[in-house]
Amino acid sequence: MAIRELDKIPTKALMARITAELEGLIVTDADGRYIYVNHRWSSLTGYTLDQVKGRYVRDIVRNSRVDEVLKSQKFVSGDAVLLNICTNEEVPVYCSYTPLFHDGEIEGCFVYMIPKSEHTSMTIPPNVVTLMEALNQQLLMVQSHSTAVNPLDHIIGTSPEILKMKHEIVCAARSSSTVYIEGETGSGKELVAHAIHELSPRQNHRLVKVNCAAIPLELLESEFFGYVDGAFTGARRSGQVGKFEIANGGSLFLDEISQMPLTLQPKLLRVLQEREIERIGSSTIIPIDTRIISATNVPLEQMVQKCKFRSDLYYRLNVIRIRIPPLRERREDIPMLIDHLIKKLNFQLNLQIPGITPEAVKRLMEYDWPGNVRELQNVLERAMNLAWFEMLEWKYFSDYFNHPRYPISASPAVPAILPESSTLRRRTGAAERDILIQTLQECQGNKALAARKLGISRTILYRKLHIYNLI
After folding, report:
1. Does the predicted model carry a pTM greater than 0.70?
2. Longest dimension (CA), the chain
């Protein structure tokens, strides 16, 4: 949470809902001075916001732990204190203290309190927890938009590969040509699509995202083109606007384009060529001005060769091609990514991890990261939950990497002897697994080199490694 963002919309509306739910709430600055109290706190103590604003919390509540929380930057829950009221009486209450941060720096403290009784629960009610989680997410979005004016700032890295990609993004943003983004799972294809849209003249219109693999086959056409009343059984009376219309004037991001069924591909090709659509059940032509940005983790050339993707549609999509380099090809960006992700996760998880040791960074740079930035973030999040408030040392990562991904056999070159009852498929699979293990050992785990040595693409290699539980 960041105090300076609390007056932003829609954060302001969420904050109002939270303050209405809580018995007593105060917000302090980094020095422990009051900057906000809610009406229930005022009713409980008799002090108004005008009376306490700018005063130190300990002037009103002598045994408050605000100063301690600001110094330690650690969450405190269910602390029993005596709250002074304006009649000089003291009311026993339970307090929970949450440190607030902005850009990784302590900025204040959020205090929730409830009157003490034998039936009192010392935890924040679940509905308030839900609201606070939503507030945290919106504050993160507000913060990311306000601190990174240039959309390219969200793409972390200074390696030659990333700088080249950023230049290609800027070039792509200048026109309305279709863009084809190719990158492995977890490499940040949606981030690139956002940057292209935000840097383009279409930035004031919508970027509509569609995951072609997540929509049932029978709903794809209606999702893309919309329909009119009575178009089919179960259709809404009012009809439905399709994604192309919603994105009119803006951009339509088609993720996992390789999963689009062949039956729908000619219709998409026609839209790209004619710049017009027809809703299902209607003969009315609707002109559209929608830019198509597509992405896939499976090279479309392979899909075309297998007759699973139309070549004419591929050529129409592949006007501007942007390849996202996998993390293993830009290892020098890993330290910068780690610092960025630690700050991001500190904010999201309400943690205060101070940093990471050089040894841990060095060892993380030696890993191939088949899941790319997404895998790196998940590994860091796991380690941060284990470390809690401590420096991230290698011991918090070691369990993840100790898994025997590439078991070493006594004679890897010789396939294991299988019982005569084994089927041909099992024998072939066992032999292929042994070949994969042997080749990876010879290439010292370098998958790009192993793929070249085996005469297959990296995508196929990773697929086989997953099949045989070698990754």
Report:
1. no
2. 91
